[in-house]
Structures are given as structure tokens and as C-alpha cells.
Write a structure and sequence with these properties.
Radius of gyration of chain A: 18 Å
Number of domains of chain B: 1
Structural class of chain B: alpha/beta
Number of strands of chain A: 12
Radius of gyration of chain B: 20 Å
Oligomer: heterodimer
Shape of chain A: globular
Number of domains of chain A: 1
Bound molecules: adenosine-5'-triphosphate, magnesium ion
Helix content of chain A: 25-40%
Largest sheet of chain A: 6 strands, mixed
Strand order of the largest sheet of chain A: 6-9-10-3-11-12
Helix content of chain B: 10-25%
Number of strands of chain B: 19
CATH architecture of chain A: 3-Layer(aba) Sandwich
Order of helices and strands of chain B: HHEEEHHHEEEEEEEEEEEEEEEEHHH
Chain lengths: ~250, ~400
Amino acid sequence: MLEIKNLHVKLQEEEKVILKGVNLHVGAGQVHAIMGPNGSGKSTLSYVLSGREGYEVTAGSATLLGQDLLALDPEERAAAGLFLAFQYPVEIPGVGNMVFLRTALNAQRKARNEPEVSAGEFLKLVREKAKTLKIDAEMLKRPVNVGFSGGEKKRNEILQMAVLEPRMCVLDETDSGLDVDAMKLVADGVNALRDAGRSFLVITHYQRLLDHIAPDVVHIMADGRIIRTGGPDLALEVEKNGYADLLAGVL
Amino acid sequence: MQSARADAAARLADMGLPGRRDEYWRWTNPAPFMAEAVPEAGAFRADTPIFADMPKVRLVFTDGVFDAAASDDPRLAGVEIARLADAPQWAGAFYGSLEASGQAPVRRPFAALNTARASDGVMLRVTGRAARPVHISYRQSSDTSEAILHHCVKLEEGAELTLLETGTAAARANLVLEVDVGAGARFHHIRPQGRSHGHRVYSAIFARISAGALFKSFTLSMNGRLTRNEAMIEIVGDNALAHIAGAALGDGADGDFHHDDTVFITHGAEGGESRQVFKKVLRHGATGIFQGKILVQPGAQKTDGYQISQALMLDDLCQFLAKPELEIYADDVKCSHGSTTGAIDETALFYLRSRGVPREEAVSLLVLSFLADAIAEIDDEAIAAEILARLQDWLARHRG
Ligand SMILES: Nc1ncnc2c1ncn2[C@@H]1O[C@H](COP(=O)(O)OP(=O)(O)OP(=O)(O)O)[C@@H](O)[C@H]1O
Ligand SMILES: [Mg+2]
């Protein structure tokens, strides 16, 4: 599904190198988790994959289903099946959630030469998905993320993911700021989307989310590299001992 | 009426026409409004009428002349409708009175000129709740036409009216609207100004608002080489409300775009609420001006005055100049003002694009987001929807 090879990234405006040769292969239907200390480059990886400006890829490649992601605009990457649940979802005053989401869905469908979804079909689709995520219909009428609590914003990200049905979902700390019940809802939302044709890359600091979303593979990222890859046990090890031992072994 | 015109001519002779040295004309050159020959301006031909399917009484002015054949039967329960030429008695006494009192403390020479020379206009006396809006619809047919129109609206106690004012009146227009909102009356004014690129318009609204009354005016300006929209609003009765809002979108690539909002709100009574919400979207060398003042007179306690002016620059070739002013002579008031200039928020743009919305469409959404507070000043949902559609149409035609 997602193939990242030797990815090197620096900031465009500064000489600061952030990713120093990332290699990652996420197979179809798999869930991979990335853990790692603050500032190790996890969010940067997610931004570079989704095409945010301000970064320069100096070496390496990233492909989604064989397509060169790095050659595409952000909207083309979305249409190709990539989705990023933001660590900090953005507020957009004056633009209704529904208008935004329908514009996004139809833009993607148009890019893929699929027929647009009618207002009626769309409403039905969103209501159904919102219900399982316990998102209030009133909330959907409000502008995008405006006045939403931290947890509501994260749930809204998962709602967008559920409606857009991407192939490759990148979740950047979707669990941070969530209470126990909300985390369960988000995890259920993710699990409901798991299938053989869809993969996940879950960035998190805590084992707790991984109790609910059982990962196939766990990676540890430090200083712009993946320094260790293992099974679910690796997350437990981090939870118990922190990163000190792992880092000591490499740096 | 004749004496009102003569008085105005005398006022004008006394104050003279404005020059660049005048405090409120430093940023907008008044010369094109005075030039002997009307500068040429092509009409916007591909026009689709706005508010087409809305029930209303439409009064059409073509190149500044009332066009009875194109207009609706001017009859509406609770509203007396007349032309300036056949002004009824009340209008004879009212005509020019608010313009005259609105000449202090800042002079408005073009408004005095208008009162002295207006060739036509609509006189509305509202005695009840109008079931439909009155729609003044301007059409421009000649590339060198000139229009000087003067409208008067008098709402008696408890009356209600929505006034729609649409289109380009002429290649060069001077439009004055005097509105007296009686106690407890409600007046809504929605004005999508013409879309022709070359037209030049000076407009002035003079409003007097009595106790417990409501005045709301919203202007949409898209295109226009030179626009100066002035508003002089005076709250004279307690617990009255005055809201004035504007959304302007200008693309210098269509020709020059210079858009100036100059507003003066006077709180002369207690418990008044005023809001000024002005937003400008500028690209390709467009210029936006905002000069807004809130004056709170002695004794106007519990005044709530708010003013915001903001520009969104779609490139860095544009210019926005703002002069917010507060002058307060009462101690128990709440007044605030703010002015900002900014570009499209890159983080929000990326967020939208990451969801699959193409760049240009995402920019349009963010422009609408920027304008939302101004559009929210329109109370009527159907009217707001038409304004929104017009905005979307402009944005679709001005991509890239
Ligand atoms: N646009 C930027 N400008 C300056 N520094 C940046 C920028 N983007 C990332 N960095 C720096 O790159 C490093 C990696 O940041 P990143 O946000 O990817 O870390 P992270 O692993 O997601 O951390 P956290 O766990 O705290 O979310 C940090 O030192 C950060 O300060
Ligand atoms: Mg991060």
C-alpha cells in the first residue's frame, strides 16, 4: 500500500534536516503504529506524505499503491486515497462542516471520474457515520471545528475519514486530548473501517490506543529515522521503560 | 422641494468640492466624480438578474431615468410610492433634511451636490409592515451615462420595510438615500452594487434612527473602477440599533479597483447598539479604504459600539488603508474597533486541500469564510443565499 524508501527531508527555509532516511512498508490491510520522542519527526513524516508546503525532499521516495506521492498536489494525494487526521485540526469559521465535507467528497470523486454524490445521499451517509461516532447533528451544522472541544475535533477527523473512505489513513496523535470514552469511540471508528483494502499508520505516544486498535507492526522513530521495528510487544516495552534503552542502543 | 435644492446648492457653493487635502479624501481621489466629461465605462452585459424569483415591487432606472415599462405596478399595502418629480408633501419637507444635518462635523459636498441636482428618485413613506421588499433596480445601457438619484424613505412608528438596491446606475453615478426610521420601526437595506468593471459610483446614506428602531444595511461590491460608499447614521432615540456591513471583492486585472467605505455613526441617545462590519477581498493591485468613526455624545450612556474592518489580500500587490476612529463623551459605554490585513491562511488551505479540495476551490471557501461575518449581517435567509450565490459566481470567474 504505502512504500517509503530512504526519505530525507529538510525545512525549505532553513538548513535544518528533519527526516534522515525513513524506510517504511505498510502492506494492504495492515495497521502500523509509530511511536517516538517529541520532535523526532513523526508529524513531519505525515505532512510530507500529504504534501504540506515548507518541506524539501532531498532524497528518497514515497509511493501509494505504486503512485509517486511526492509528485502530486495535496488534493491529488487525497483523491489517490491518502488521508491525514491532523494532530491539530484546523478551525474554519464561516464554512459549514457539511458544505466542507461534501465539497471534499465530490472533489475527490470528480478527480477519480466517479459520479458526484447528491445532497440527499450525502446527508444520509454523514448522519449514519456521525451516529456511530456519537457526533451530534447540531455539531455538523456548525462551521468546521469552530467551538469544538479538543475531543470533538478529533472525532470530527475520524468522521471525515469515515465519509471519505481513504485507502491509506495516517492518524497523527488522534488519541491525545481524548477522554477514555472518546478514545474508545475513535478506536471503534477506526476498527469499523479496517479491511483488507485499507491500511493505517497510527502515530501515538501511548500504548492505551493500541489496546483498542491492535497494530500489526510497531515502529520507533528517533531523530528522523526508524530505529526499531517490532510487533505489538514493542509498544508495551516503550510504555514500561520509556525510550532511554532503545535510544542508547542506537545513538 | 425647490427651496431644499436651492439650500443644497448654497451649501455646496459654501463648502466647495473636495480636494486631496480634505482629511477624508486623502486616500481616494475625488477628481473622477467631478470631471466634466463622464469617463467611459462599459456595462456588465452577461448579467443574470439577482432576486429574480423573489416577490417584490421592482422600480427600474435605466441610465438614471425611471423606466415605467420595465417596472412593476408601484402599489404595495402600507407603502406610499412616488417619484421625485411627483414628490408628495411629506417628501417635499423631508428631501435633503438629513443630508443637510449630516454635513457636520464632516462635510459631504457630493451629497449636497446630489440634493441640488438629482434628476430622479423614489420617495417611500412606510406606514405599515410591507409584505414584500421594494426593489430599486438600476440598469446601465450607455457607456457614458451619468445618474444623480436621490431616494427618500420615511418609516412611521412601528413600520417595516426591506429595500433592495441593485445594479449599476450609470457609467458614473451619485446616489443618495435618506432614511428616517421612526420609533420601533425596522428597516433592512441590501445593496449588491453593479458588476460592470468600469463604473464609478459615489453613494451616501443618511439615516436617523428613533427609539427602539432597527436599521440594517448591507452592501456587496464586486468590481467597479471607483466606489465611495459613505454612511452617516445618527441614533436619536433610546435603545435603537444600527448595523452597517459591507463585503467588497476587487480584482485589479479587470481594470482598476478602488473601493472606499467611509462611515460615521453618532450615538445621541442611551442604550444604542451599532456595528460596522466591513470586509474587502483584494487581488491584482486592488485598493481598499475604510474610514469609520463612532461618536458617542454626552449622555449616550450604555452605548455598545463595535467596528471591524478587514482586508484579505490574495496577492501582495494590493493595498488596504484603514482609519478607525472613536470619539466618546459618555463614561458608561462599551466601544471597540479593530482592523486587520492578512493573506490566505496557509494552514487552513493545506487542511482543505488534504481533504481533496482543489487549491482554487479551497481559496474560494476561505474567501467565503473571511466574508462570513459581513454576510451574517443579512437577516433574511433567502436574500443571504442570493448574495452568497453571487459571491460564488464572482469567485468562479476570478480563479487563478
Ligand atoms: N515548519 C517547521 N519549522 C521549524 N521547525 C520545524 C518545522 N516542522 C518541524 N520542525 C522541527 O522538526 C522536528 C520534528 O518535528 P515534528 O513535529 O515532526 O515532531 P513529532 O515527532 O511529531 O513531535 P511530537 O511528538 O511532539 O508531536 C522538531 O524539532 C520541530 O521543531
Ligand atoms: Mg507530532
